[in-house]
Amino acid sequence: MKIFQIAGFLGSGKTTALIKIAKELTNRGERIAIIVNDIGEVAVDGKIIEDYGLDAKEIASGCICCQVSGSFAETLSIIHDSFNPDIVIVEPTGVAAPNIVKDVADSIKSNELIKVQHAPILTIVDSSRIELLLKAVKRLVEKQIKEADIIGINKIDISNEDLITSTEKFVKNLNPQSRIIRISAKTGDGLSEIVEEILNGH
Known about the structure:
Elements: E1 2-7, H1 14-27, E2 32-37, H2 44-51, E3 56-59, H3 69-83, E4 87-91, H4 98-107, E5 117-118, E6 122-126, H5 130-146, E7 150-154, H6 161-174, E8 179-182, H7 191-200
Parallel strand pairs: 1-4, 1-5, 1-6, 2-3, 2-4, 6-7, 7-8
């Protein structure tokens, strides 16, 4: 069972990208399960995903990576036993740290019947408002970038070239080992490259 995590701050385009990525993986014959987490009483993201005909397992009560980490591990075990997917896509809350979610997934490895692999971690960065995000939540944005294997520079369809280029430079300085892919979650541009990384990356 491979775990693919898609991180990014609120409004970065995670859910839109997730839906398109999940559909392409399904079209390629992969069995997909999705775990979403949303802060607040109404889990909008899960409803959106279900509206597109994909099943989402909700984790309530706050942040997936800290407050309910035990529930997350239990959910992974249940999904494995009941559905046995090829790939579990995890969309944490926009304030989650990717490595903590990864550590929780690793915690179920003690169960010898569950073989957990990690696909590359994807962080979505909104190039159209990167400067605003850095002013408001700089440490969080930087942490999500530093802990990613792939950075999706999103909203290239509405952002200008100067902003996209400066976002790429900023990301590369923070995480020189990451693969940077220009994407538009809305149009689907660049998402097939991410699907290839999920299937073949380590």
